[in-house]
Amino acid sequence: MGQIKVEKNVGGIEGLCIITPAVHGDNRGYFMETYSRRDMEEAGIDITFVQDNQSMSTKGVLRGLHFQKQYPQTKLVRVIKGAVYDVAVDLRKDSKTYGKWYGVELTEGNKKQFLIPRGFAHGFLVRSETAEFCYKCDDFYHPNDEGGLAWNDPEIAVEWGICGDYHGSACAEGYTLPDGTPLNLSEKDQKWLGLSHTFKF
């Protein structure tokens, strides 16, 4: 396991892992392995990924909190440009940490990766001017299987670092980043409900 460092069960939530790759740099730049199945298996993580995705978002965009209901996905996420605050929420009904969340800053500088198992809602907030976000999935995207959780559900109380008062829904109106950048959510992400009305795995 020479090329990665794995921190398991972060935040006391079983299955969540922070993976930090070894970065080999000199005056020319750097090189790193962004994924090695061998290293993952040596770390006790046996996952077969089938799809890679990439997105670009601007500052203030919050994508989430998303999951697939009948075809849940394990995700290995990272940022290749900019910075995001990445969050996972445990929705496994038999889990000791059901409803608990954990967040980590992912940046092009720290090169950390966040492994999120099946049974979690996932989302991220863009803190830089733009961010390019990449992730591997162990199942394909199924457009009619989408589920979601309100990003600002007070029962979960994710600490996004966003300014504004909760007004009973996931609507982005009235919320900003500390520098005044308006929060930007899709129309769909402003309609998700809270934990008590959300799908359980």
From TrEMBL:
Single Gene Ontology MF annotation: dTDP-4-dehydrorhamnose 3,5-epimerase activity
Coiled coil: none
Annotated site (Participates in a stacking interaction with the thymidine ring of dTDP-4-oxo-6-deoxyglucose): 141
Gene Ontology cellular component list: cytosol
Record GO biological process: dTDP-rhamnose biosynthetic process; polysaccharide biosynthetic process
Annotated EC: 5.1.3.13
Family that this chain belongs to: Belongs to the dTDP-4-dehydrorhamnose 3,5-epimerase family.
Physiological role: Catalyzes the epimerization of the C3' and C5'positions of dTDP-6-deoxy-D-xylo-4-hexulose, forming dTDP-6-deoxy-L-lyxo-4-hexulose.
Protein name: dTDP-4-dehydrorhamnose 3,5-epimerase
Species in which this protein is naturally found: Candidatus Scatousia excrementigallinarum
Gene that encodes the chain: rfbC
